[in-house]
Specification:
Blueprint (H helix, E strand, L loop, with lengths): L5 H12 L5 H8 L3 H13 L3 E8 L6 E10 L6 H11 L3 E8 L4 E8 L4 H12 L3 E14 L25 H12 L5 H8 L3 H13 L3 E8 L7 E9 L4 H13 L3 E8 L5 E7 L2 H15 L3 E14 L10
Antiparallel strand pairs: 1-6, 2-4, 2-5, 3-4, 3-10, 5-8, 7-9, 7-10, 8-9
Helix pairs in contact: 2-3, 7-8
Length: 323
Amino acid sequence: MIKLDSHDKKILEILLSNSREQVSSIGKKIRLRRENVNYKISRLIKQGLIKEFNTVLNEKQLGLVHYTVFLELVNLQNGTEREILDYLKKNGNMSWIGTSAGKWSLTFDIVVLEKTDLDSIISDLLTKFGNYIDDYVILKLQDSNYFGFKFLGIKNNQNIRYEKYKKVKLDETDFKILSLLNTNSRISLVDLSEKVRLTPNGVANRIKNLEKNNVIMNYTISLEWKELGYEWYGLQLKLIKFGKEIDKKITDYFLNHKKVEFYYRYFGGTWDYDFGLIVKNSIELREFINEFRKNFSDIAKISDVFIVLDEASGYKLPNDVFV
C-alpha cells in the first residue's frame, strides 16, 4: 500500500481539481521545487496510484448519448473473458470497462452520437458472445456526478454536473483538440499546436473558448484506490417514491458522504441509481448499507451490491465521437 506524505496529498488535491496545472505552478502553491514536484508526480504514476489524466467533457454539448451495460457471463472457457474485454476495448463506442464479482461480471459504458444505431452495437456483441451472456441490462444515463476529491480528506473543490447549456458549433480543429485532451489532459500547448497546426496561443484561445462554453467541464485524474488500501463496491438503487425533492435528498447524501465516489442516475431502467462506494473492507460496506437503509428505507432500496475487481479501461470518451 502506498504511503502519502503531506506534499503528495497536496499535489493530488491540485491535480484532482485541475490536472493541467503546470509543475511550476504546483511548486509555488505547495512550496516545493519544480524538479521535486515532477519527481513526485512521476513516482505516483509509476507506483500505479495516478492512472490517467482526464478531461471531463460535457457529453450533452457534444450531442452524445450515454448508456451503461451490465453483463452476467456464464460458461466461460479459458481466455473467453479476455476475448470479450479485448473486443470491447477495440470498439470505438466503448468508454469505461470494468470487471466485477457478484451478479454482474462485466460493466461498460457506451457513448455514442445521437444518430448512432445502438441496436447494431448490441446485436454485434450478442452475435459474437451470446453463448456466454446469461443476462444483460442496458440503461440510459440521465445524470452523473463524480467526487474523487473526498477520499484524501479534501473539501468539495468542484462539483461537476452535466447541465443543459446553449449548444455551440464546433469545427474540425476543435474536435482534434478535444480528442487529444481526452487522451491526456496534460498534453502541452506546444504538442497540441504541432498536432493541430495552430500556434500555441491559437490553441490556448480555442481551449479557453471550449471551457467558456462548457464543452470542457474540468480536468482531473483517475486514481487506483487499491493502492491506498480501499475496495470499490457498486450499489444499485431502486426508488420507491419519486420526485425532485427525493432526487435532491439522495444526491445531496451522495455528495456529502465521504465514502461515495460517484453516482449515475438512469432514465426508465431496471433501477434508478448506480453509485460507487470506496471502503476499507466489507465491515465498512455493511455499516454503510445499514446507515443508508436507516435514512432512506421509506423512499429507496438497494437492489444489488457487487465488488469491482478491475478497471480494464479508464473513463475517456470513445474515439468514434471525435471522428
